[in-house]
Specification:
Order of helices and strands: HHHHHHHH
Number of domains: 1
Number of helices: 8
Helix content: over 70%
Distance between the termini: 32 Å
Structural class: mainly alpha
Strand content: under 5%
Shape: elongated
Radius of gyration: 17 Å
Length: about 160
């Protein structure tokens, strides 16, 4: 068995284990809320508010946000639409997801990459808040696996992309 096959088997095992835990702890609602919090509204609202209501430092931060997210979203879009990894329900027989994803492919996780980038940008100016946001970003990534729309390796790739 080659390395990619081994990684795929491990990915499916972790996905199925996570699914069994979601049923056990009835974590679907919490996962939906966490996932929705990573939809991008927060990442867009903060720089807009900083630009509109802040001083020069806030505008500089807003410009950094715009530049970082422009790079991250471009890389995310190119990778996702080039690699075209199918989502778990299309790869794993009889697997059920809890939500309908917004697009067709799963690799890398866009929710995770955006959440981690947001946390990293905030950490650079407010480390305490940034640390809390890193915990939130990890929760966003985990929620995508719990909901059955991303594989664990999609989350790892999204985190690496967001960390840029």
């Amino acid at each position: 068995m080659n390395t990619l096959n081994i990684l795929h088997v491990l990915d499916i095992r972790m996905l199925l284990w996570t699914s069994s835990q979601r049923d056990r702890f009835r974590s679907g609602y919490s996962a939906r809320c966490l996932s929705r919090s990573g939809d991008g509204y927060l990442q867009a609202a903060l720089p807009c508010c900083a630009w509109l209501y802040g001083g020069d430092d806030a505008r500089m931060l807003a410009a950094r946000f715009v530049w970082a997210f422009a790079v991250e979203r471009t890389l995310y879009f190119v990778l996702k639409n080039s690699l075209k990894r199918r989502r778990p329900p299309e790869c794993v027989p009889d697997y059920n997801r809890l939500v309908l994803p917004s697009d067709k492919f799963s690799f890398p996780s866009g929710h995770t990459s955006a959440a981690l980038l947001f946390a990293a940008l905030i950490y650079a100016v407010a480390p305490t808040v940034g640390m809390l946001l890193f915990v939130w970003a990890c929760g966003v990534g985990l929620s995508r696996v719990v909901l059955g729309v991303d594989f664990p390796s999609d989350i790892v790739a999204g985190a690496a992309l967001g960390w840029q």
